[in-house]
Amino acid sequence: MGNKEEQSMTFEETLEFMRHHPWNFYYTAPKGTKDWAAYRERRERLDEIGSMINTVPIPSGWVGIDRYDYEATDRYIEALLEGYPGRWLVPRIGMDPPLDWLRANPEEVCVYWNGPTDPEEIAAMVGTSYHDRSGWDGDKKPYPDQRISNQSFSSKLWVRDACTALGKLISHIEASPYGGQVLGYMFGFGNCGENMWWGDWRNQGDPRKGDFGISHKKHFYNWAVKKYGSLEALRRAWDMPGLTLESLEVPTPPERWSENGKDLRGVLLASDQRQVDCNEFHSEACFDAIEALGRTVKETCGKPAGGFYGYFQDETVGYAGHLATDRAMTTPYVDFYSSPKAYHYCLAGDPGASQAPGQSFARKKLWIEENDSRSHHALGCDGDRAPKTPGDTVTVFWREIYRALTFQQGFWWMDINGLNDDWYGDGEMVEMFRSQAAFYKKWSPIPRKSIAQVLFVEDEASCGHTTYISGPQRNLRLRLERELRLCGAPVDHLRIGDLFEIDLSQYKFIVFCHAFVMPPEKWEGIRKRIRPDAHVLWNYAAAMLSPDFDPENQKRVTGFYTGECPGRMQPEELYRHIYWHCTHNCPQDYPLVEILPEAGQEVLQVSPDNRILTARVRR
Question: Are the C-beta atoms of 36 and 426 separated by less than 8 Å?
């Protein structure tokens, strides 16, 4: 019944197979229908186009405290693999705990800002309308009165029990007739199973954010004391002379929000080390859980383990817990990662992007690039996201294949909108997908060397030093990458940490997207590695933190001083954000800055009121 070929592959051969064959992320079973024949028909069409690796969500079987039931799990796996020995599976497994566990462990529950602090009150809310089961729900207004979510990611008890549940599930699958068709395991928790803290995707103004849970507060306090070496040192760092565990206040949503406007110090959290540390703690706690689950996979079956991580394009990436990227790159327990595509500037004529620095991840791990695009067949049901014409569909889908190949990444088609985007009956689209799968399999194994002379650089330390802020992320970050890529030259996309490990001599133009944190010794280490004739573009308030707020450091590093403009507003069209076909106005929630004039500057661009926006100096 099972596929015996996988059992003969070594671990490295399995990873290479996963790298060079296109995946599909597709629903597991019919949604709201008993039409299993239609399900099998569509699955066979995926086989026909040459997508051999299936990643689908399956139940974990963790149904109660020390209780496990794999009936639904077996049914889902059998629906996919029974009678199809040529199919491969990488199950996507959500490891959030069952309701009984939450009721029994109210101290381990994620409690929102407006939630209770008494364990009995928390337990009583589990499973009621006050319980936010998903952690996200779009832009609902008025906001539902939800006061708790599921587990705190910092809960060591949850991590322990989730690892036990995952180990039991893997043992069950490996002992089944289909264990040989399972290439590896992809686990997740939190929002959409993407390892993002509950409430992360919600808009500013929504109180259903933050984690004010009982054990989470204790873990944050103990972690912070350990980081600074003593309680007295922590009190000095946070400027809270009387701080105790009892008096500790986790940063609230209003403290994090920026929609009412913050000055530059507020945007860069220059006077709020507690919030910076909270971002770091969220990321360490989140990755502790990821690493523990990955270790469980290794110790149980020895197969590749992976999950979602690194969403730098999320403006609340620190709160989400996605800043422990150095650990993600070097851990021996996690082998592959992915993120959704970037849902901005992604139609025909746009360059496309990923929500994470996938090229950076791919230097050390297997990165699976996701194509969550629609076709023109979805115009009637998802018109904002669908290409307008068949030609636009071809452009969008081939662009994503080329992007993955260029950066030596794995690849999957994400859902293609399930049953709503009926490409299955379109012979031309089926042939396009077949051609793409064959093209990918042919060229993916061929080693490629970057020829890019332009480098786009991100920095997780600077992300962690930024408050919840919509305007700069869209106007200064997303739009900058789009315009840079549309210049026509190849662009590499890396992190500041990568610059100390690779040869930088090929890059003639280096763009630092948000290098707010740039101590002089770090810059000196990078500067020595850059070719002497390279141009460096600093964006917004670059090098303003060293890590303290320090305009002199900005001058030393960049050659410029910048200052906040007295008038904060700018023409509305300059901060519009394109999301699929929709145009959204972004809040003016950050200060505009100008370059302060000095001798030796070559002014390249000024505002209508004659403020310097872009200038050049030779150093």
Answer: no
The rounded distance, in Å, linking the Cα atoms of 588 and 470 is 8
For residues 23 and 410, is the Cβ–Cβ distance under 8 A? yes
Closest CA to 310 of 327, 294, 323: 323
Pairing, β 562-564 against β 336-339: unpaired
Count CA atoms closer than 13 A to 589's CA, side-chain side: 23
The angle that helices 273-300 and 231-238 make with each other, rounded to 10 degrees, is: 120
The whole-number pLDDT of residue 6 equals 47
The model carries a pTM of 0.95
Q: How far apart are CA 233 and CA 251, in angstroms?
A: 19
**Span 544-553, pLDDT tens digits:** 999 899 999 9
- Which H or E element spans position 470? helix 470-472
Q: What is the pLDDT of residues 262-275, one digit of tens each?
A: 889 999 999 999 99
pLDDT of residue 1: 39
User: Is the separation of the CB atoms in 3 and 86 below 8 Å?
Assistant: yes
44 vs 48: CA distance, rounded Å:
6
Pick from 521, 509, 532, 380: nearest CA to 457: 509
Which segments of the chain have a pLDDT < 70?
1-7, 27-35, 138-139, 258-260, 416-422, 567-580, 584-588
